[in-house]
C-alpha cells in the first residue's frame, strides 16, 4: 500500500505549545538548521507562531501535529508567505519529535499542510501564491524524502540563509497549489 501514512490532525499553534517548541529545539532536531536556539529566540519564535495562527489565513499558519488515535502532539508544521525568485510563494517547514520519526508522520502532516496552503492561496488571489516551497538542507535525507513523497518537484540545490547570517546549502522543492495540480 503506497499511502501507509499514519493519521494526523493539524491544530493551530497556541500559547499552550511553548513546551512542544522547547522539545523541538533539541540538538538532534536542529542539526541541519544551525543548532538549537537560545531561550530568548524560542520566546520570539513562539510569539511569531501564535501571531501567525491568529492572522489572516492568507499570511500562512503554524500548526502542532497531533498523532491519531493517540491524540499526542508530536511536532510542528506550517506555511508562511514568502518571496522567492521575485515570486510571491508560500514556504513550509516541519519538525517531528525523535520518538515519532520514521513512521510517516512528517509526510502525513505535509500532505495536510498542502491542503491548508492550497485553501489559503485560493482565497488570496491578490497575492497570487500559486507555489509552496520547502528548503531542506541538501544533506537532510529524511526531509528531502518527505518532499518527494508529498509530491514536491525538485528544482536543484541553492544557497539559503538560515538562520539569518548563515548560508546553508539546501534543495529547493516546489509544489504547484493551482487547481490543475489539485486534480492530478
Provide a concise account of the structure shown.
With 184 residues, this protein is of the alpha+beta class.
Topology at a glance:
Blueprint: E1 8-12, H1 18-23, H2 27-30, H3 39-54, E2 60-67, E3 72-84, E4 87-96, H4 105-122, E5 131-134, H5 141-149, E6 153-161, E7 167-176, H6 179-183
Parallel strand pairs: 4-5
Antiparallel strand pairs: 1-2, 2-3, 3-4, 5-7, 6-7
**What share of the residues does DSSP label as strand, in percent?**
25-35%
Q: Write down the secondary-structure element order.
A: EHHHEEEHEHEEH
Low-confidence spans: pLDDT under 50, at least 5 residues? 180-184
Give Rg in angstroms.
16 Å
Strand order of the largest sheet: 1-2-3-4-5-7-6
H/I helix tally: 6
N- to C-terminal distance: 19 Å
Label the structural class.
alpha+beta
Number of strands: 7
| Average predicted local confidence, pLDDT | 89
Tell me about the biggest sheet?
7 strands, mixed
Q: Which percent bin holds the helix content?
A: 25-40%
Walk me through this protein's architecture.
It is a single chain. The protein is an alpha+beta fold and 184 residues long. Helices cover 32% and strands 32% of the residues. It contains six helices and seven strands. It has a seven-stranded mixed β-sheet. The two termini are 19 Å apart. Residues 180-184 have low confidence and may be disordered.
What labels describe this entry?
184 residues; alpha+beta; 7-stranded mixed β-sheet; 7 strands; globular; disordered C terminus
Amino acid at each position: 500500500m503506497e499511502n501507509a501514512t499514519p493519521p494526523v490532525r493539524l491544530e493551530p499553534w497556541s500559547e499552550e505549545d511553548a513546551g512542544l517548541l522547547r522539545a523541538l529545539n533539541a540538538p538532534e532536531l536542529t542539526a541541519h538548521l544551525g543548532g538549537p536556539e537560545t531561550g530568548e529566540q524560542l520566546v520570539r519564535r513562539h510569539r511569531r507562531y501564535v501571531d501567525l495562527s491568529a492572522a489572516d489565513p492568507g499570511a500562512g499558519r503554524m500548526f502542532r501535529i497531533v498523532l491519531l488515535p493517540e491524540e499526542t502532539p508530536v511536532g510542528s508544521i506550517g506555511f508562511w508567505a514568502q518571496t522567492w525568485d521575485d515570486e510571491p510563494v508560500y514556504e513550509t517547514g516541519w519538525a517531528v519529535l525523535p520518538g515519532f520519526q520514521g513512521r510517516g508522520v512528517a509526510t502525513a502532516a505535509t500532505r495536510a499542510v498542502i491542503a491548508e496552503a492550497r485553501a489559503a492561496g485560493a482565497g488570496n488571489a491578490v497575492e497570487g501564491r500559486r507555489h509552496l516551497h520547502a528548503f531542506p538542507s541538501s544533506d537532510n535525507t529524511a526531509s528531502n524524502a518527505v518532499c518527494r513523497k508529498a509530491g514536491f518537484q525538485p528544482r536543484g540545490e541553492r544557497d539559503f540563509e538560515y538562520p539569518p547570517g548563515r548560508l546553508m546549502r539546501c534543495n529547493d522543492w516546489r509544489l504547484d497549489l493551482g487547481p490543475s495540480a489539485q486534480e492530478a
